[in-house]
Every structure is written in structure tokens, then in C-alpha cells.
Specification:
Chain lengths: 399, 518
């Protein structure tokens, strides 16, 4: 080994130093982001930051765990000795000194919960055997959601002031808003679930009628084919009406589309030409249940039904790094981009079954950047593209 | 080397490079477009998937490095190729099926799925990048070495070619990890090393089967196992390297993503078993080159590293067209090894840079209107340029040793995360983070110290501990993760029990007991 460092080694040291420098700059920037010149700015920032931390804990509404995590931040916002939250049944959380008073909170708040008015407690109502205990007075403010008193926020300390009373009331009002937001989120989920149920029941009556008519036409001429088609129909309905998780694998979803297309082909014959390009690597990806079938149904309908001659529908699933890209394309009549925009933004029209629903479910499952992308113009066909991440927290295919 | 030889070799290298870029660009057209398809029949089978894993895993260190190390250190080192394969056994027994069931595509995904923590995810992403870069480094060095041996060009040219070809194929469409193409790579590599090996072995049989001198001036060829003759404390060095190889394989970024292609946990296990068989078959050949090298190339030309023995051997044993042809096949195979491993790694590293570091920042700066592919391309440039620059400055550490360090870092960081994450429900977020930080800092510090040359030539324990750190960094990381987890029971994720059920229950069971909601 040479005693002197080689140029390579010097270069490596330089690279190491450069990396350390880069790290230093990043850390410095992170630190600087927290530094404020003006104390007012600083106070505003800290209050907003604490509030945002508390918001996160209250995201699921008033649960004991969420309330416990939130009270810590609420206490630092109020600056009181202790803060407690109680709902109509029991005390949910206590943060701060003198936690032996925790069991009294619900009793203290009884009046507030029934009247909906803020109550100030003095040392007459709060008794304590411990002479050093700093819980001598308290303020209890109602938390109102949906015009009902659902809980109460209590701030305890040695003394109270008008300022603290108002701050507590404001904070209770703020918590009310958060709870209403959480309720709104829950309702959104419920609406989604209801929509999915509706979508499941929404195998269109026309489709059933057309299928059975097409099968009937084969019964005499080609009984074997008729039997096959009936089995396809049975499998298709079993899948579409299954009860189960909200997600499935791309493989199962495509398999169902395979059955669907077999049935449509029985009806349209050579007029329907389907081509599929599927990368086998993406078959295990989890997708929302019945996310693709409505899109294919739309493509078939727009590509064939309102058109004379042959209609092409192509379906592709490609592997794009950490995501899978799924495209459904037809060369049919196309539609006005404005109409599609209206459908996607929620103003549904009957013509595009499920387009808005699929878009909403994709966004809900994977985030806003994973919505549908529709390229269309009158007479120019329609191309619907969307991406699905290979992994998303909380999304599992339960096929 | 004769002009003809360099002509043949150059042709093989250009052929491999052109094919790689072409496949990258035309990849999508390879996937069949049909009007009638049977989705179930299109699932990637375990055999193809295993070939693809082998194709990506067999790197420069395997193709050139193993032979080089057997050549210079003798039969003492026959355990090394075994070690490269052994990692998959640990992977098979401990993590393959649960990992597939977790639904994770990358290790950061697993961290998030198991611990529901964005911070641990971030940390894991940074480590993926570090390990990927360190593993890319020897690929570039090896390419430079191969080109130098074949054509006499400066090593920088070979590295540049590999970097350029990988960048071109990844940017042209390398985000698609086409199983079929990677699977073919395995068979190309196997053929490229097996055919010359059989020819040379036949020449050796006909040539009177000379045996290597057991006591060469360069060091004895045979000796008692286990030993690492070039090091002080050989026993420690051997066990530490073995540990790194056994427990590091599961943490290699480009290996894990392939498991996602398996339909379920059972298929993941079956794939791993086949991988062990395929790799075992491949690793039979490099040691043969090492042994024949000792016989026919008692001393290497000045300025060449032992790693190039595979490429020099054919012309030494069969001067003329046959030797040139075999050299060309080997050079082509070696380049295929660099390219496939480097592309796999680049795609993984670029994916992580893009997803976890770049996208968010670019969306914030540019208002989210940026096409997805642009940020991925930018990420792949970053993913390649840094290890390329490092390979240019790199010190003289052998290919197998650099790769060994990447394994050591993976064993000290991801191994505790994966094993504890899969098998211990008490793992807390704080514990996992502490394990990653402590293991990562120690192992990377040791690697950097070795590269810089701390304690080199002084003898004693220090250089050995730094060059083969796994034996002390991995247990430290495990202990840290366990102790911190025990100390912070409050940061055990709320859904730990549910995550454990998902990891360990076979898919059919999970599907059956699922509450029928909706």
C-alpha cells in the first residue's frame, strides 16, 4: 500500500466533504425555517403549528386516543394548568397536573352538556384534600356539533380570567369545527360505499336483456356456445355482485372484463374488435373493485352502439416503475370535453355510467394525482388513462 | 492483446449494448397484443421470475470478481460464491412470503405498511439510495476493467459506456421492468460463462491436467478453511463477510422489487427456491477460471487487476481465433452483467429518488403540471451520475470487496427492519428508526473509512473491523432496535397486530375471514 494518498483517495475525501457540506446546508435550512426575528411572528407561527398538530389528532373525531393526543396541544395553546375533554358519557382525556381531578370532570360538565352554556367553576365547586393542588378553578365550555352539545372542554388552573374564559370558548368552537369536519369525512366515505354498492347493483338492465337475447339466438344453432356464454354470464354476475373488500387485483378485474367482452362479442360478432396489451408484471396490483369494467363498458357503448361498421376497443396495462398505467381506448363517436369535465367534477349525466364514480374512488384510494385522464373530442374516439401505484398504504387486494 | 481479439471483443460489447438500448426502447412492443387473452395464463411463472432475479443479481462481482478472488487467494475463498447464494436461503426462510403478502413494492413501502410511519419510510429511502449507489460503483469499475482488458482503452471509457447505455435504456423506457428481458439476461450470462468454461476445461484435460502450484509466491493456493489469507484475523473476516452476504441479500433494492411480480406468498417462496438453484449453477463456473488462471497465468501483466483473469485466460490457453472468440463471448457476457445489474439498480434508486424526494419538491416548485416521466428521467440522471463520478475517483478496492460493503450496509440496516418487522410485533417506530440510524451510520462510516484508507497497512484489528463491519454493526443494529422498542412501547403502531396477521396468514385465509362489509 502506498504511504501517500492516491488522487482517487483525495477525490473520495473531497466527495465525502462535499456530501457533509450538503447535509449541513439542508440541516441549516431546516433550522432556519424555525427561526423568526419578530416575537409576534414567532407566537403566531407557534400557535398555528400547535393548532395543526391538534387538528391531526382530531381527524377521526372525538375518540379517547385522539382526544388524549389533542389535549396536550390544547393545553399549550391555552397555557392553563390542566385541560380535559369529556363527552356526554365519560371523561375522554386529561392533560396536565392534578390528574386525580379527572374523575370529577364529567360531573362538573353535566350542567354545560345539558345547557350548552359556558360555566366558570370556583374553589367552592372544586374541593381538594391536597393543600398544594393547583386545581382551584376551572372553565368549562361546550363543544357543539350539528347544533348538539356533544362534548365539553375544561380548562383548570389556580385562577381564571376573562381572557382565559374567552380563549377557552374560542378553542371549544374550533374543536367543534374539527369534529364537524371529521364527521364530514366519515360521511364522504359512507357516500362512496353507497355508490359502490349502487355500482355493483348497476349491471345495466339493457346489458342483461341483450346478453340473454344473444345467448338465446345461439341455443339452437350452437348449443355449446350458448352453454359457454351462460356460464360466462353466471361468473360475471357472481363477480359483480360479490360482497367483499373494496379492492381486488388487476388480474381478477381483467378476468371479469374478459367475461364481459365474451358476452358483448356474442352480441356484436365481428363488429367488435378488442385488442389487449397487458404487461404480466402488473397483474398483482391492487385496484378498486369494478374500477375498470365501467370504463370498458363505456368504450364498447361509445365505440360500437352509436356507430355503423367495425368498432375497435383497446385495453392496455403497462408497467411504469412504481405504478401501473391502464388505458382504455375506443374509436367511436367521442364526446364533448366539457361534458366529460362536468361528469368528472360531480355533475353527473346519465350517459357516462360510473365515470365520475370511478374517478372519485381512485382519488379517494390513492390521492388526487391518481384520477382519470380522459382525452376525447366529438368524432375522435375516447381514451381514458389512469395510474395505480403498486403500493399504497391501507390498500390491499382481498380477492 | 492482438488487434483481432480487440475487434471480436469490441463487436461483442457493441452487440450487447445495442441490444440493451433497443430492448429498452422497444420493450412495450414485445408484450403481445392479442384479441383473446387468458389473464390467468399470463401471470409470470416462478421459473421466469427466478431467472429475472438471477439476471439482475449476477453482477460484475459475480462474473469477474469471484474468479479474481479465487485466482489471487486460492481455494480458501471457495466459500465466497456459496455465500452469494446463501442469502437467498435466509430470504426464503425468513422474509420472502410475508414480504409478498405485505403488498410492498420496495423496502420503504414495507416500512410504511408495517409501521405506518412516513419518517421511517424516508429513512429507508435514503438507505436504499446509499446501498444502490455503493452497489453501482463496482459495476462501473468492472465495465472499465473489462473494456481495458479487451481493447486497451482507458477504464474511464468503459465506465462511461455503461453509464451512457444504462441512462439511455432507462430514460427510453426502463421504468418498465420487463421480466422476460431480464430472464433472458440470466441465460445469456450463464451461456457466456459456461461455454468458454467447458472449452477451456476440455483444453485443460487434453493438455495433461496440470495442477496449480500449491505454494506460489503470490500466496498458497490451498489451505484450511475458513480463512481470508490476505487479512489479519482471517477467521473474523470470513465470518463477517459471510454474515453480510447471508443477511444483506434481502436488503438489496433491485432484488426485492421482483418479488412483487409473484401472485402470492407461495409463489414468492417457489421463486426463491429456483433462484437458489439458478445461482448455484452459475457460481460453479467462476472458480474454475480462478484455478485455470493459476495454472496458465502464473503472473498477470503489469497494471492489471486480478479481477480481469477471466478475460485474459482464453488467449493464454488458446492463442489464436479460438481464444479471441472465447474472450469476446466472456467480454460480452461481462458487459451484459454490468448492464442488467446497473439498469436494475438504477431503476430502483431512481424510483426512490423520484417518488420520495423529487416529485414532492418539483410539484411544489412547478405547480404539479410536470409530466411524471420527466421527474423520473431527472432522477435517473442523478442516480447514475453520482456513482459514476465516484467510480472515477474510486480507490483500489477489489470488486468483490466493494460489493461486500454494500451487503454489509444492507445487513446492518434493512435486515433488522425486515426480520424484526416480520417476526416481532413489539417493534416500535422509534426502535425501527433507531436501528436504521445506528446500523446505517456505523456500516457506512466503516465503508467510508476503508475507502479513505484509515488504518491501512498498520495491521491489527482496526482495518479488518472496518473492511468487514457486518459482524459488529449488524448485531449492534439489532440490539438497538430491540432495546429502543422495549423502551418505547407507546410508539408501537396501533395496527401492528392486523399487519402481522396479513404478513403471516396465507392469502386464502385472509380472504375467508375478511369481514363482509359493503
Amino acid at each position: 500500500m502506498p504511504a501517500l494518498p492516491t488522487p482517487g483517495e483525495i477525490g473520495l475525501v473531497a466527495a465525502g466533504l462535499f456530501a457533509a457540506l450538503l447535509l449541513g446546508v439542508v440541516v441549516l435550512r431546516l433550522v432556519r425555517r424555525r427561526r423568526f426575528v419578530d416575537p409576534v411572528d414567532r407566537a403566531t407561527y407557534e400557535t398555528l403549528h400547535t393548532a395543526s398538530l391538534a387538528t391531526r389528532s382530531l381527524r377521526d373525531g372525538l375518540t379517547p386516543e385522539g382526544a388524549t393526543r389533542a389535549t396536550r396541544h390544547l393545553r399549550s395553546m391555552l397555557g392553563s394548568t390542566a385541560v380535559a375533554i369529556t363527552d356526554t358519557n365519560a371523561t375522554l382525556a386529561w392533560d396536565g397536573a392534578g390528574s386525580h381531578h379527572r374523575r370529577d370532570v364529567h360531573a362538573h360538565a353535566e350542567q354545560v352538556l345539558s345547557s350548552g352554556r359556558t360555566l366558570v367553576l370556583t374553589s367552592e365547586q372544586i374541593t381538594c384534600s391536597d393543600p398544594d393542588c393547583s386545581i382551584r378553578s376551572g372553565i368549562i365550555a361546550p363543544i357543539v356539533a350539528d347544533e348538539r352539545v356533544v362534548a365539553a372542554l375544561a380548562a383548570y388552573g389556580r385562577t381564571t380570567s376573562t381572557g382565559l374564559v374567552r380563549a377557552t370558548e374560542e378553542l371549544a368552537g374550533w374543536i367543534s369545527t374539527q369534529i364537524e369536519l371529521a364527521e364530514l369525512g366519515r360521511q364522504r366515505t359512507r357516500v362512496m360505499e353507497a355508490e359502490l354498492r349502487a355500482l355493483r347493483a348497476q349491471i345495466s338492465p339493457h346489458f342483461i336483456y341483450n346478453c340473454l337475447a344473444a345467448i338465446a339466438s345461439f341455443v339452437r344453432t350452437d348449443p355449446d356456445r350458448a352453454r359457454e356464454l351462460l356460464l360466462e354470464f353466471a361468473d360475471f354476475t357472481r363477480y359483480a355482485l360479490r360482497r367483499g373488500g373494496a379492492y381486488t387485483t388487476l388480474r381478477d378485474e381483467l378476468q371479469n372484463i374478459e367475461r364481459y367482452l365474451a358476452l358483448e362479442k356474442a352480441r356484436f360478432g365481428d363488429r367488435l374488435v378488442v385488442s389487449l396489451t397487458i404487461a404480466p408484471e402488473v397483474l398483482p396490483v391492487a385496484v378498486p373493485f369494478l374500477a375498470i369494467q365501467p370504463l370498458v363498458e363505456n368504450a364498447v357503448r361509445h365505440g360500437i352502439e352509436h356507430k355503423s361498421g367495425i368498432g375497435h376497443v383497446s385495453i392496455s396495462a403497462a408497467d411504469v416503475g412504481a405504478t401501473a398505467e391502464i388505458t382504455i381506448e375506443d374509436d367511436g363517436e367521442g364526446s364533448d370535453p366539457e361534458t366529460i369535465r362536468a361528469v368528472l367534477s360531480g355533475g353527473g349525466s346519465g350517459n357516462s355510467v360510473g365515470l365520475g364514480n370511478v374517478d372519485a374512488r381512485l382519488r379517494q384510494a390513492f390521492g388526487d394525482e391518481y384520477g382519470l385522464v380522459v382525452e376525447t373530442a366529438p368524432g375522435a374516439g375516447t381514451k381514458v388513462t389512469f395510474r395505480v401505484p403498486k403500493f399504497a398504504p391501507g390498500v390491499h387486494s382481498d380477492s | 492483446m492482438s488487434a483481432v481479439a480487440s475487434g471480436w471483443g469490441l463487436f461483442a460489447i457493441i452487440l450487447v449494448c445495442t441490444a440493451t438500448v433497443a430492448v429498452g426502447a422497444l420493450g412495450l412492443r414485445l408484450s403481445r397484443t392479442t384479441s383473446d387473452f387468458y389473464v390467468a395464463g399470463r401471470t409470470v411463472t416462478a421459473g421466469w421470475n427466478a431467472s429475472a432475479i438471477g439476471g439482475e443479481y449476477l453482477s460484475a462481482a459475480s462474473f469477474l470478481g469471484v474468479a479474481g478472488i479465487v485466482y489471487s487467494l486460492g481455494t480458501h475463498m471457495l466459500w465466497l460464491p456459496v455465500g452469494y447464494t446463501l442469502g437467498y436461503l435466509i430470504l426464503l426462510v425468513l422474509v420472502a412470503a410475508p414480504l409478498r403478502r405485505s403488498g410492498a413494492y420496495t423496502i420503504p413501502d414495507f416500512a410504511e405498511a408495517r409501521l405506518s410511519s412516513r419518517r421511517v419510510r424516508r429513512l429507508a429511502s435514503l438507505l436504499v439510495i446509499a446501498i444502490g449507489w455503493l452497489y453501482l460503483l463496482p459495476q462501473f469499475q468492472g465495465a472499465g476493467l473489462a473494456l481495458q482488458t479487451v481493447t486497451g482503452a482507458s477504464p474511464a471509457v468503459g465506465s462511461l459506456i455503461v453509464a451512457g447505455v444504462v441512462l439511455a435504456s432507462v430514460a427510453a423506457g426502463g421504468m418498465r421492468s420487463i421480466t422476460l428481458v431480464q430472464a433472458m439476461q440470466y441465460w445469456v450470462k450463464l451461456a457466456a460463462i459456461a461455454i468458454p468454461c467447458f472449452v477451456l476445461a476440455w483444453l485443460w484435460l487434453r493438455g495433461g491436467q496440470p495442477l496449480p502450484k500449491l505454494t506460489d509466491p503470490g500466496g498458497p493456493f490451498a489451505g484450511a478453511l475458513p480463512a481470508y489469507p490476505s487479512r489479519e484475523h482471517p477467521l473474523y473476516a470470513t465470518y463477517s463477510t459471510m454474515l453480510a452476504l447471508c443477511f444483506g441479500t434481502m436488503g438489496l433494492p433491485h432484488v426485492l422489487v421482483r418479488f412483487y411480480t409473484n401472485p402470492d406468498g407461495r409463489a414468492a417462496r417457489r421463486t426463491t427456491v429456483i433462484v437458489i438453484g439458478l445461482l448455484g449453477a452459475f457460481y460453479l463456473f467462476p472458480p474454475v477460471f480462478g484455478m485455470l488462471g493459476r495454472v496458465y497465468l502464473p503472473s498477470l501483466p503489469a497494471g492489471t487487476r486480478a479481477d480481469s483473469v477471466v478475460l485474459l485466460l482464453p488467449s493464454a490457453m488458446a492463442p489464436g481465433t479460438l481464444g479471441d472468440l472465447l474472450s469476446a463471448i466472456l467480454a460480452g457476457g461481462a458487459f451484459a452483467a454490468f448492464l442488467s445489474t446497473a439498469s436494475g439498480l438504477t431503476v430502483s434508486v431512481a424510483g426512490v429518488i423520484d417518488q420520495d424526494l423529487l416529485s414532492g419538491a418539483m410539484n411544489r416548485r412547478l405547480g404539479g403540471d410536470l409530466p411524471r416521466t420527466h421527474s423520473f428521467r431527472l432522477a435517473s440522471v442523478v442516480a447514475i451520475l453520482i456513482p459514476y463520478a465516484a467510480s472515477w475517483l474510486a480507490p483500489s478496492v477489489t470488486l468483490a470487496d466493494t460489493v461486500g460493503m454494500a451487503f454489509a450496509i444492507a445487513a446492518s440496516t434493512f435486515c433488522p427492519l425486515l426480520i424484526l418487522g416480520v417476526w416481532w410485533r413489539g417493534l416500535s417506530v422509534a426502535g425501527a428508526a433507531a436501528g436504521l440510524i445506528v446500523g446505517g451510520t456505523l456500516a457506512m462510516g466503516a465503508t467510508l473509512a476503508t475507502f479513505v484508507g484509515v488504518g491501512r497497512g498498520t495491521g491489527g484489528w482496526l482495518p479488518v473491523l472496518l473492511a468487514q463491519p457486518a459482524a459488529w454493526t449488524m448485531p449492534t443494529a439489532f440490539v438497538t432496535a430491540v432495546l429502543v422498542s422495549l423502551a418505547t412501547p407507546r410508539s408501537i403502531p396501533v395496527n401492528a397486530a392486523r399487519a402481522m396477521v396479513r404478513l403471516h396468514a396465507p392469502e386464502e385465509v385472509t380472504a375467508r375471514v375478511r369481514p363482509s362489509s359493503g
